[in-house]
Amino acid sequence: MDHDAIAVVDFGGQYAHLIATKVRRLNVLAEIREPEDPIERFHGFKGVILSGSPSLASKDEDSDYTRAIYDLDVPILGMCFGHQEIAKHYGGQVIHGGREWGPADLHLARAHPLFEGLGPVERVWMSHFDSVVSLGPDFEELGWTTLGEAEAPHRFAAIGSDRFRRYGFQFHAEVDDTVNGDRMLANFVFGLCGCRPSWTMERYLAEKVAHIRAQVGDRSVFLLASGGVDSTVAARVIAEALGPDRLHLLHVDNGLMRKDESRKVLAMLESLGLGRNLHFVDAGEEFLAALRGVVEPERKRRVIGDTFIAVFEREAARLGVPDHLLGQGTIYPDTIETGGTRRADVIKTHHNRVPIIERMIAQGRVVEPLVDLYKVEVRELGARLGVPDDVLWRHPFPGPGLGVRLLCSTGVADTEGLDRMAPQVAEVAARHGLQASPMPFRSVGVKADLRSYEHPVVLSGAADWERLIEVAGLILREVPGVNRCAWNLGSGHPTAFRPLAAGVTRERLDLLREADAVVMEGLRRHGVYREVWQCPTVLVPIEVDGRGRELVIVRPIRSERAMTASPARLPHTLLDHLRRVLPALPGVSGVFLDLTSKPPGTIEWE
Ligand code: XMP
Fold first, then answer.
1. 262 alpha carbon to ligand 1 midpoint, in Å?
2. What are 254-298's pLDDT values in tens digits?
3. How far apart are CA 62 and CA 53, in angstroms?
4. pLDDT interval class at 341 (50, 70, 90)
5. Model-level pTM?
């Protein structure tokens, strides 16, 4: 290993990636390991951090991990679940109880290198059901917590054994609410593990450039450039290594792009000095032809994927770049089964890791300059290489593009179960002075880690954000068969819905492009583009109360890595703008704002 590094064991939830990101921000490499990884995968690290988990240590859940980590002669720090596991392993006791949630005051028992530079009382952040209630031999209590005067102290909030070099925090040092959490992590990483801070973007770039030169030799690299952050930064790194002559870029317009997207992407790539071998193919007609008559969402996705491969192979052969390697903008989270895949059973094969690509990787024929980086690091590297801010901060855009945002229909109303749902959703909404009805079509969602295909509900009435989101949550929880809830931005409560037969057509795509451009421009103009993580605009072919033929649904969300999402609150001035401009587009039958979290809704509607 070229860098001093820390292994972070991912016991689930969002914590492990947050820990790894925080350690990397200290300029120390951190890599994620699965709890069941063979012990060899832990060799070479200067320390190990065990993450938190949704599992209960008191019930021995998830206790089947590689316990040989405790034989490693390096310091180990556990947080929350990891803390409890360390206590248990060394003879302490963990019970179900002693729950703390939110802020707490950590009182330090004595000066210790883990808390170097910190005060006697530190504000920390708690989220646990289980607690350590006794310690094994050689362990000591390094701190306890209180919240307010009246409360009895929660013991063993920080524990440690200097003999074994094992430590535990009941709190989450990785979250910003633990005010000096970064300092605690730094004390562990530098003070106890003795890491040197070598993980800098400058050094990373120099190493990657050398590596790419050695790997590629005098051959060329062929890379698909979508215009997204990852492929653009990857292209810049490869050009840095090989010069612009030996990098061939192909941009495919599949006809499912945003308004003016391809033109802007080509101009942007040119401006970055990547225009020398920049190839473009307009395959819009081919995709439209392949999609003709396709209504079912999964089939649509497959058709788009298959067409893409066909176009790519044909163009690659036509361009005839001799003896080339394939460049990809794969980033670190794309390569690991975590954050809701292996541990949460939602398996989604990433397109950068399909079998044919895996074979090429084994043969050394794939160049992936960003494969060790998190998104924030990709942005930092991109900024260093002159990639403009608006590219670096662009919202993620799915491969099948607007194709998954243009719902299609045979025109037959899907009313199964609607009679049962209607009074139930209306009753929940009425409790809060609102109106609600289920709609006669379906969209994709995810429930209990499985794909669902269920009915959306429309909610109407005036209320503040908190109330609207609360009512949407209640409907989603209480009424079976519903997986989305959207708020009507128009006046009154819509009652008559008539689905219309519609497929993927140029006219519909053009309308969606216009609506999407209005929304994107609105987010930028009202200063919320960055705060909103992604904002699909969706068209549903349905007449509402005898008006128009296309319902527009806007879905602003906040998210970290797309595994979960919550509805984003938009400024009222922006909502007013959308209320005014979107219904004026031709054929629009209504405008709704999706208030569904993920789960139970997915980010995309199909
Ligand atoms: P869902 O809809 O599953 O989306 O909550 C999670 C994230 O993935 C994006 N997405 C895709 N990206 N190909 C992609 O490259 C796809 O087929 C695809 N489907 C969804 C989606 O936009 C969101 O960011």
1. 20
2. 999 999 999 999 999 999 999 999 999 999 999 999 999 999 998
3. 9
4. very low
5. 0.86
pLDDT band at 345 (very low <50, low <70, confident <90, very high): very low
Q: How is residue 68 annotated by DSSP?
A: G
Task: Please report, as a single letter, which amino acid is at residue 429.
Answer: A
Tokens of 527: 């200063």
Contact 19, 49 (CB under 8 A): yes
Q: Which of 238, 527, 557, 562 is nearest to 375 (CA)?
A: 562
- CA 398 to centroid of ligand 1, rounded, Å: 5
Report the C-alpha gap between 379 and 129 in whole angstroms: 37
- Ramachandran area for residue 496 (φ above 0: left; ψ -120 to 50: alpha; else beta): beta
- Does residue 197 contact residue 27 with C-beta atoms inside 8 Å? yes
Active site residue 154: no
Residue 41: DSSP 8-state: G
CA distance 566 to 560: 10
Pocket test for ligand 1, best of 604, 605, 606 (most atoms within 8 A of CB): 604
Burial of residue 399 (number of CB atoms within 10 Å: 0-12, 13-18, 19+): middle
35 half-sphere exposure, CB direction, 13 A CA radius = 22
Q: Is the peptide bond before 599 cis (omega within 30 degrees of 0)?
A: yes
| Burial (0-12, 13-18, 19+ Cβ within 10 Å), 323 | exposed
How far does the centroid of ligand 1 lie from the alpha carbon of residue 562, in Å? 8
Quote the pLDDT of residue 129.
Answer: 92
List all residues 6 or more positions away from 191 whose beta carbon is below 8 Å from its beta carbon: 113, 114, 116
**Distance between Cα 301 and ligand 1 center (Å):** 11
Q: Are 349 and 334 in contact (CB under 8 A)?
A: no
Say if ligand 1 is within 6 A of residue 265 CB: no
- Among residues 17, 80, 122, 577, the one annotated as catalytic is 80
CB 37 within 8 A of CB 10: no
Tokens of 42: 């832990």
Cα-Cα end-to-end distance for the chain? 42
Point out the catalytic residue in the list 17, 83, 172, 577.
172
Within 10 Å of residue 344's Cβ, how many Cβ atoms?
15
Q: Is 80 a catalytic residue?
A: yes
List, in order of start, the domains of the chain with CATH numbers.
Answer: 5-192 (3.40.50.880), 201-401 (3.40.50.620), 418-594 (3.30.300.10)
Computed over its alpha carbons, how large is the radius of gyration of the chain?
26
Say yes or no: CB of residue 398 within 6 Å of ligand 1.
yes
Bridge partner residues of 534 (DSSP):
557
Tens of pLDDT, residue by residue over 349-406, are 566 777 777 888 899 999 999 999 999 999 999 999 999 999 999 999 998 999 999 9
- Does residue 172 carry a catalytic annotation? yes
Q: Which atom of ligand 1 is nearest to the CA of 397?
A: 22
Confidence of residue 15 (pLDDT cuts 50, 70, 90): confident
